[in-house]
Amino acid sequence: MAKPKTIPDNTLTGKLARLGLRTDADFIVHLPLRYEDETRVTHITDAPLGSPAQFQVRVLDCEVVFRPRRQLIARVADESGAMTLRFLNFYPSQQKMLQVGTLLRIFGEVHDGYLGEEIIHPRFQVCDETPVLPDCLTPVYPTTAGLGQGTLRRLISRALERCEGTAAMTDTLSPACLKSLNLPEFATAIRLLHTPPPTVRLADLESRKHPAWRRVQFDELLAQQLSLRRAYFARRTRVAPKLAANGKLTSALLASLPFSLTAAQVRTWGEIAADLIQPHPMQRLLQGDVGSGKTIVAALAMLQAVEAGYQAALMAPTEILAEQHYRKLRLWLEPLGLKVAWLTGSLKAKEKRTVISSVGAGDTVLVVGTHALIESNVGFARLGLAIVDEQHRFGVRQRLALKDKGQFAHQLTMSATPIPRTLAMSLYADLDVSVLDELPPGRTPIVTKLVAETRRDDVVERVRAACVAGGQAYWVCPLIEESETLQLKTAEETHAMLVAAMPDVQIGLVHGRLKNEEKAAVMSAFVDQKIRLLVATTVIEVGVDVPNASLMVIEHAERFGLAQLHQLRGRVGRGAAHSTCILLYAQPLGQLARARLKVIYENNDGFEIANQDLRLRGPGEFIGARQSGLPLMRYADLEDVEMVASARNMAEEMLEQNPAQVDAHLARWLGGREDLLKA
Ligand code: ADP
Ligand code: MG
After folding, report:
1. Which of 201-205, 243-247, 267-271 has the lowest mean pLDDT?
2. Is there an atom of ligand 1 within 6 Å of 325 CB?
3. Are residues 431 and 450 in the same domain?
């Protein structure tokens, strides 16, 4: 599937392509990052602090000094006062231009320097007595190495001229829409953003609150919604089996459970059940915080498929997680007389063949596994439902393979990384979303403690005492992003240190380099309480469910992201016992690390943590996890609740009423960036 790699080429065309600029239509939506006001000349004595301005000055004096390094210093003055221009790098030609007596127009930010007010590296040009000032603000465009603002400005301004009066400037929204949304026309907005008249307040432009910016932001969100919704409707035209069931198996399962479903589980199960009886594939995401009980909802959905005479598959990104699901499903479903098959890469070839042929013959109706499930040699006789846990952890290739395999099956994706509602609406516009917003009752909230690393001995003693008293604990090793080898070494050292410190406790070690069957053996010893303390790398981050474990230590907690800390912490607090999570941190703490630890200390709710994460990191990085065909937002703000909602509504309306305009709108906003979208 790998695309041929395009060699970055250093011609002008190559540089422009790097910015997604090919056609005139691409150029006109390449909008400024900021503006410089060269329409006015400011007096030196009126120079604003902290923002750049333009001055008209005469050179009083210019010399190269060595203080300590070689630099060019010019004294300049206007009628109001004098200041210094300092150049740390300069060309002889520049020095020549700064002849005593020369009149200059300079642009830059004035600082309080060693010699009084100064500008470092101002932009300057020699001018005559009555220079003509530009009549609009000067745009500064996002660019790439070796492509100057001057060139880019010229190219964009020519593209604008050529586009005037053509389809490239035609509005994709009707006047009535614009009126109802209170937005300016496309052409008006675009012209204003490239060449804003001096009457426009610079602050409105820079804060991107100006109506022209709002129009562009709306258009971009609309394009995103249109492309995702169109993909959604396209998949709805496919045929999938109606999984009508009599409810016998699901009722039997519910009756056998030691608990009853939460209201949220009942509701989301209902949403899924209703999808499954439709003649087109379900495309639903089940979002639920760590421990909210997604697995039982998945099991109920699988039973509906089985009752209707179809097969159901559940796939997880890691062997540990798949194994957990496998255990759970067997525990629940075998008493009902159902067999669950197990398929992962680590099975012996012969066992694998047996499972694959039984799945192919349709004798096996329930199968759990890793991505081995979607390998090309696995053919399902009549796959009705494919469930994927933590889909974002699968690679792109695997996601595509799954799409192929599940072409005609219903699909359910489960995620324990909840995201705020507006973000979900925007990112998952191609999915229906169900939310498990309630934890099963009887959980005692996890107590989180922040402990400086200097008190590690106390922590070791506390863990020992808990294990000796019959409890179980996790000890999570520090994340070392730069080196997997180093991470492994640290895990082994931590394990050795803990074994030495608590000879009376059975301690296991699990990390990513273990063979799958070794991993599985350690995990099942932990489940069976033969191991009391499990030293682990982040391989236990997702899904591991051992309710008896009620204590967790996370080393170097300051290195982990918020979502990761929340996931890790979610491994405890699964039983009735009081659970504690100890976050060991090393000082000094950076500002961001401190803020993260504060959030995780104060909050237990995954949705709230996701909100805070969004606030700390901004949406750009936050959504990095979803690499599907999602446009990267250049101008829009995903936190703008109202705008996302109205873009969503407008998208539905346009798709229904005006498909031609949908095409035009998508071409304008996504056209030159298709390669970015397909990554
Ligand atoms: P997650 O949503 O993180 O995948 P799980 O499905 O692993 O959560 O469920 C967490 C634990 O809660 C499991 O031990 C599960 O059996 C249990 N559980 C699920 N639903 C309920 C419920 N309604 N009442 C009590 N316990 C439940
Ligand atoms: Mg789970």
Report:
1. 201-205
2. no
3. no
Cα–Cα distance measured from residue 241 to residue 257, given in angstroms and rounded to the nearest whole number: 29
The reply to whether 282 and 388 lie within a common domain is yes
* Residue 293 near ligand 1, beta carbon < 6 Å: yes
Separation of CA 575 and ligand 1 centre (Å): 10
Among the ranges given (41-45, 289-293, 381-385, 555-559), the one the predictor scored with the smallest mean pLDDT: 289-293
* CB within 8 Å of 610: residues ≥ 6 apart: 417, 418, 419, 420, 563
Residue with the smallest CA separation from ligand 1 atom 18 is: 293
Q: What's the helix, strand, coil split of the chain in %, to 5?
A: 45, 20, 35
Provide the pLDDT confidence category of residue 383 given band limits of 50, 70 and 90. Answer: very high
Q: Of 548, 556, 605, 607, whose CA–CA distance to 585 is shortest?
A: 556
Query: Cα of 477 to ligand 1 centre, how many Å?
Result: 26
pTM of the shown model = 0.76
**Closest ligand by atom to 440 CA:** 1
Residue located via tokens 């039984």: 358
What's the CA-to-centroid distance between 321 and ligand 2, angstroms?
A: 8
Show the DSSP H helices in 319-455 as ranges. Answer: 319-333, 349-361, 396-405, 421-427
**What are the pLDDT digits (tens) for 13-47?**
989 988 888 899 999 999 999 998 888 899 999 99
In this predicted structure, the answer to whether residue 66 has a pLDDT above a threshold of 90 is: no
CATH number at residue 461: 3.40.50.300
Identify the nearest ligand to the CA of 390 by its number. 2
Instruction: List, in order, residues 6 or more apart from 365 with CB less than 8 Å away.
Output: 305, 306, 310, 311, 312, 338, 339
Interval between CA 295 and ligand 2 midpoint (Å): 6
Domain assignment present for residue 231? The answer is no
Which pLDDT value is given to residue 631? 46
Torsion from C-alpha of 532, 535, 540, 545, nearest 10 degrees: 10
Angle at alpha carbon of residue 70, lines to 65 and 74, rounded to 5°: 45
215 lines ligand 1 (CB under 6 A): no
Tell me the best of 261, 295, 302, 387 to mutate to test the pocket of ligand 1, counting ligand atoms within 8 Å of each CB and taking the most.
295
534-571: pLDDT as tens digits: 999 877 766 677 888 999 999 999 998 888 899 889 88
What pLDDT shows up at residue 313?
Answer: 95
Q: Are residues 349 and 400 in the same domain?
A: yes
Three-state DSSP class for residue 588: coil
Query: Whose CA is closest to 223, among 674, 675, 657, 622?
Result: 674
Q: Are 600 and 584 in contact (CB under 8 A)?
A: no
Distance, in Å, from the CA atom of 206 to the CA atom of 201, rounded to the nearest integer, reads 9
Does 434 contact ligand 1 (Cβ within 6 A)?
A: no
Task: Out of 603, 627, 656, pick the residue that ends a domain.
Answer: 603
State the total domains in the chain.
3
d(Cα 103, Cα 83) in Å, to the nearest integer? Answer: 14
**Which pLDDT band, with edges at 50, 70 and 90, does 657 fall under?**
very high
Q: Is the CB of 264 under 6 A from ligand 1?
A: no
Say which range, 104-108, 277-281, 589-593, has the weakest mean pLDDT. 589-593
